[in-house]
Amino acid sequence: MIFLSQSMRNLGINKDDVLRVWEFCKKNSSGSKVAGSVIPSVLKFDDLEISGKILEEVNWPKGNPHYCIHVINPLIAVYCRKGLLGKAEAIINNAQSRGLNPDVRTWYLMATGYLQNDQTEKAMEAMKKSICETGIGWIPLRNVWPCF
């Protein structure tokens, strides 16, 4: 099913078709496996509301292997790009409450969002967390260098 939803997105299938696949997967107990592909597919149509609802609909218990940071990073990226930093922070807080730790990409996305919204101190803190996640050797893109 994951391949199907990714293929649908790449073939130019419309949002209603993607949502039909999502509804089918939810009813057949594979929603948590497919959510990571469906959310970016819906975001392609710039529908933050439905993407957020999909994230909420999946009841991921702690330790579920299908609930990884890669599922939420696309939504965080769009929230940050649109200046909806509070929503991005809420997703991260929810993930952390379920035992999921943000990765380097998550903190990089947040740093970029903070920087674009003139929140330099928060951007610096997010970059510090990002560097701590990766250790030595990772170099951030130039758009977040002003944090340092």
TrEMBL record:
The lineage of its organism: Eukaryota, Viridiplantae, Streptophyta, Embryophyta, Tracheophyta. Belongs to the PPR family. P subfamily. The keyword Manganese does not apply. InterPro entries: PPR_rpt, TPR-like_helical_dom_sf. GO terms for molecular function: mRNA binding. It holds the Pfam family PPR. One of its GO terms (cellular component) is mitochondrion. It comes from the Eukaryota. This is Pentacotripeptide-repeat region of PRORP domain-containing protein. PPR repeats lie at residues 68-102. Keywords: Repeat.
